[in-house]
Amino acid sequence: MTSKIFRSIFIAVVLVLLVTLVIITGCMSSYFDTVQQNELRDELEIAASATEKLGVPYLEALKSDRYRLTWIAGNGDILYDTDVDSGSMENHTDREEVQEAVKTGSGSSYRYSSTLTEKTLYEAVKLSDGSVLRISVSHATTLLLVAGMLQPIIIIFVLAVVLSMILATRMAKNIVKPFNHLDLEHPMENDTYEELSPLLNRIHSQHKQIDKQIRQLQWKKDEFNQIIEQMEEGLVLLDDNGTILSINPAAKEIFKTGAFCVGQDFLTVDRSSELSQAMDRVNENGHEELRISRSGREYQVNISRITTEDHISGSVLLAFDVTEQASAERSRQEFTANVSHELKTPLQSIIGSAELIENGIMKPEDIPRFAGNIRKESGRLVNLIDDIIRLSQLDEGGSMPMENVNLADLTDEVFSVLRSSADIQNITMTASGSAELFGVKRLLFEMLYNLCDNAIKYNKPDGRVDVAISSTDKNVTISVSDTGVGIPDDHQSRVFERFYRVDKSHSKQSGGTGLGLSIVKHVVQYHHGTIKLESRENSGTTITAVFPIEK
Ligand code: ADP
User: Fold this and answer.
1) Could you tell me if the CB of 502 is within 6 A of ligand 1?
2) pTM for the complete prediction?
């Protein structure tokens, strides 16, 4: 800006100087021309009256260095010339001043020399005899004058230029100085040129607008940060080179990293080939999904490319914890496989027995045994299907009608159903205590039935089954103890799994499906309770369910 101001001032000074020079020279030249013309007229007047009286002798006597006098006859011939021999001069009728003088009595004109360095002024007057007396003087033209004054002009010019340069530099600095000290952060607090007020006002209003936009952006950024920080899913934003731009706490936890990883290549945070290959595929396909395991948990990872205006600006990685979902999927698959297997076994036995009877191969006395086998296996199938239906109802988890259930009455009901099978082994069943539980009666019956059924099935002859009910103001406890075969330590953690049996043949023989304890566990969970198993081999088992009292 300083150099621009300097240049403008400098050009202005030079132009003013040149224009001044031209105007002064022009004015002076015109002034001197006028003075000279007046002088010539005076001289001509005197010479004319003298020539009228004295004729050529006067002119001869007059011969002057300053002027030239020419006496021209009415027909244009030269009668006398003070500078040149009149005989050698051409006729002058065509001269402008002569023609004018003949016509009007006086005339004037000027002419330049061929080199334009000399200018001749002419004044002519008509004498009484019709002849014309002309006076002329030559002087240097303005151009020659200027050329003559060139040296002082150049000196003045150089001086003026140097002076203007110094002045221009100082002025430019002085003009710019307040600009350099402007406080643009607080534009309204500046005490500077009046002319800057509109600009400062605009800066002030732009400041206010920018502040508002920054606040809005910050607000949006905070909102975004809060959302991604509270997200349970891991979220990583990457640029087009795979560098981490942003990572939320859940993703830091999954990839075991800290805030320092922002700005680093994602592959330095997670070096697994599965993820790096997925990233490569994302660049080609735009989207990739994969499952990864980290710290004993399973994650579904979705990576998507972000494209803006036809170019890849980065990608976003979203990781969901699907451990429970995956294990549920696995147990569903296992369950389906187990169900098919469990259904197939009794069906094959039924088909086998039926074929033997059909073919008539067996002896008539064996038929009742095979028919009994078919009935037993069919019974097992019915039990199995019942249990599967119960379990799938519990899996669905829909709401069922709840009521206050008297557990002592419920135990009596269960005992009466199981009485005959207990009697077969001479097993004594007792119940102690009483409590009410707000729950689904049908499910609680299932639970107590399965526990007591197991306590009888896996008991020893002449054994005992004891149901104990108790309550506090916080929970209700029901426990079923037996004096049976017990469950070996290494099986205890698995007996609640679907189709898990410690002694397969014993379970089958007693009509077990391997689903009883799974149903028990589900019923307890449905009522938000907990279940505990204590057992010693050959000594007995106690299974205790504790239900919180819902207020
Ligand atoms: P099942 O239909 O085979 O009885 P459950 O799910 O009810 O299936 O029980 C799973 C396994 O746990 C049984 O096969 C049995 O081996 C064992 N079990 C259950 N209850 C008892 C018990 N009271 N005493 C000993 N073993 C038991």
Assistant:
1) yes
2) 0.53
